[in-house]
Amino acid sequence: xxxxxxxxxxxxxxxxxxxxxxxxxxxxxxxxxxxxxxxxxxxxxxxxxxxxxxxxxxxxxxxxxxxxxxxxxxxxxxxxxxxxxxxxxxxxxxxxxxxxxxxxxxxxxxxxxxxxxxxxxxxxxxxxxxxxxxxxxxxxxxxxxxxxxxxxxxxxxxxxxxxxxxxxxxxxxxxxxxxxxxxxxxxxxxxxxxxxxxxxxxxxxxxxxxxxxxxxxxxxxxxxxxxxxxxxxxxxxxxxxxxxxxxxxxxxxxxxxxxxxxxxxxxxxxxxxxxxxxxxxxxxxxxxxxxxxxxxxxxxxxxxxxxxxxxxxxxxxxxxxxxxxxxxxxxxxxxxxxxxxxxxxxxxxxxxxxxxxxxxxxxxxxxxxxxxxxxxxxxxxxxxxxxxxxxxxxxxxxxxxxxxxxxxxxxxxxxxxxxxxxxxxxxxxxx
Length: 431
Ligand code: CMC
Fold this sequence. Notes:
mainly alpha, three-stranded antiparallel β-sheet
C-alpha cells in the first residue's frame, strides 16, 4: 500500500479522527477508515459501495471518465486485437504476458483438464430439460467441489493453482453441456486438438450425425468475446466471489456464488435482456416510444445494455464489440439484420438525448454482444453462460489474489439498523 503521508481528519461530536490517505499507482486516492469504529464509535454508510474500496488489487484497472480498461496495465483494445483468450488468462492469473514456452506449457495444462468427471453427466440429468443454462451452471459448478477433492484446500498453493486451471479448462465444457441438455442433444466431449474458442463451438454445435467444421473467423469472434469479458475489477459478481472466499469456502463454491450473482439483469443477465428488448422494439419507428419509457420516472423500464456504474464516457468493450458485430454479420451474409439496425439507431438517438447525455449513459458491453452471439447461433439463454465462462478467469484470479494476502480477513459489512428496539415476546393469544 503506497503511503503518501497525507491524512484526512474527520471531526464530529468533539472528536477528531485522523485517517491515512493512500495513493494507488493510478486512479482515485483512498482514505483508510479501518480505525474509525475503534476510535470514533461510528460506522460509514455506503449502500451499493459507491465510494468504498473493499480491497487492494493489482489485476484490472478502469478509468470510467476516460473509458479505459487495463488488464495488468495492458489496454483492452490491444489485447482484443493482438492477443488471444488463453494468453489473457495467463496475464490475469500471473501478472505478466507469457513467453512462448510459458504459453505452450499453460495451454497444455488447460487443455489436459477440459473433461468433466464422467459422473457429473448424471448430475446434469437431474435438471428439468427446460432449465435455464445459468441455473444448471450454478448447480453443476457448486457440485464440482464434490468431485475434485484434491483441489479444495485453500491453504495449499498448489491446490489453489490446480483449482484455477480446472475451472478455466472445464467451464466451457459445463456451459456447452448445459446448452446441449437444454436443446435435448447428446453431450459432446471436448477436443483437445482445437483451440479454446473452437473447442467451445465444437462442444455446442457439433452433433454425432454429421461432421462439424469450426469457422476460424467465428472462432476468432468468440475468442474476442471471451477476452472482452475476462475481468472487470470489483464488480458485483467478483465482489461476491471475494466475499464468499473470505470465509474460507472452497473455490468451486465461490465461483458458483459468482455465477449466481452474474445472472441478474443489472449485471451479466443484461446481454439476454438487451437482445430481448431489441427484438421487442422490433423496428426503428418504435424507438421513440422506448426512449420515452426509459426516461419516465414512473416506469421501471430501463434501456438494457445502457449505463454503467464506473464508465461515464464510453465502455471501451462496447466499441470493440460493435466492430465485431459488423464483421460477424458480414461473414454470415446477414446484411439486413433488423435487430442491428434497431441497435444502431437506438444508440444514435439515445446519445443525442439530453436525458442520456446528462446522466452519462452510454452503451455497455452487453449492447452489441447479443447480436454477435445470436448470429453465431446461440439462443438468448446462452448469452449469460458465455459471459460466466469468460469471467471465470477474472473471478479465480481475484480469488487467488485475496487468499494469498497476508492479513486477509472475513468480509463482514456493518449496517444502519432501523428495526424495532428490544421488546418482549407476546403469547399468540395476546397478539
Ligand atoms: N436506462 C435508463 N435510465 C438509466 C439507465 C438505463 N439503462 N441506467 C441508469 N439510468 C438512470 C437511473 O434511472 C438514474 O436516474 P436518476 O439519477 O434520475 O435516479 C441514473 O441513471 C443513475 O442510475 P443508477 O441506477 O443509480 O446507476 P448505477 O450505477 O447504480 O447502475 C447499471 C448501473 C448498469 C446497473 C444501470 O445503468 C442499469 O441498470 N443499466 C441497465 C442494465 C445493464 O445494461 N447492465 C449491464 C452493465 S455492464 C455489464 C456488467 O457489468 O455486467
